[in-house]
């Protein structure tokens, strides 16, 4: 059968590569993809323009806000603590025991990236994807002890209070990974003047880098 974003592109006479670009971002809902495709000028839809779709995507995601109060609160929460970032992947399951041993020993401030799981004793959950927020809204409602942190492009569908962070201030200039969740989180921590951040990876020799 057909893939819905390609169907939307076809119905609006858009080159299929526009749909492919938006699918590969893995941040947008079907409604978002439709809105982005409809915002492409009619004269630019038939021939694919990589720079144009990147610009349209960036503008669509951008939601400028003053996040100084949220930054101040987050600085207070992480002050003096090591920070452990956990991103979704198979190693969270295969290395579950070792991760918990590290958490028990070091007592870091644990932040999950684009997922919510009460099994990791997380202090916060950082979400920069509208699509992921829709997927985990129910999970995050069941974890009232976890601080929800959202970038300003994400609609808060959890019914929970959240710290809102300016989306543009966390992105970078490489369009291939401009809104990669780990890079955005590191950018946010830099803005919060964090000094000691650890990323878990089962491929690293020392397990934590």
Helix-strand layout with pairing:
Elements: H1 4-11, H2 16-25, H3 30-38, H4 50-61, H5 68-78, E1 83-86, H6 91-94, H7 96-106, E2 109-113, E3 124-127, H8 130-141, E4 147-151, E5 163-165, H9 181-191, E6 197-199
Describe this structure in words.
Helix content is 42%, strand content 11%. The chain is α/β, with parallel strands linked by helices and 209 residues long. The protein has a 6-stranded parallel sheet with strand order 5-4-3-2-1-6, with helices on both faces. Helix 1 (4-11) runs parallel beside helix 3 (30-38). The chain is elongated. Mean pLDDT is 89; it is low at 204-209.
The gist of it:
The protein is an alpha/beta fold. The protein is built from 9 helices and 6 strands.
* Inertia-based shape: elongated
Main sheet: strand order: 5-4-3-2-1-6
The separation of the N and C termini measures 43 Å
Give the mean pLDDT: 89
Percent range for β-strand residues: 5-15%
Helix content: 40-55%
One letter per element, helices H and strands E, the order comes to HHHHHEHHEEHEEHE
The counted number of beta strands is 6
Question: Rg, please?
Answer: 19 Å
Which parts are unreliable, with pLDDT below 50 for 5 consecutive residues or more?
204-209
**Major β-sheet profile:** 6 strands, parallel
User: Given the structure, what is the number of helices?
Assistant: 9
Strand-pairing-aware structural class: alpha/beta
